[in-house]
Task: structure prediction
Amino acid sequence: MRLPSIETLESAFPGKGKELRTLLESARAVREHPAAIKRREECFHPPSLLDQRLHALNAAAETYGVEYIAHRDDTYSDTYGLEYLNTGDTYTPTLMFDRARGLWRVCSWGDIVERFPNLYP
Result:
């Protein structure tokens, strides 16, 4: 899986690119992160590694939580939407996981939703 470079991460989150990249690359770093540990403790069922990773990334990036934008093909058991770190601004670049494509990217979620209005109603 191709991940955003440290430089790309730095452009959106100055001074945090290296730590964010480590969390994207290493399951161990995620499992040992205090935010992931806290997430596991607050869930009745064990959260997925992706869920833990997003919470660890949120803490490291100092954003305002993990958000989800539904995809038109989402069902109860299958999700294809966008999970992203809430920066507080629709058009500020952020770290996003595209579930439909299985890709991490740095961009604004507002640009994606505007570009593909039929996918994200």
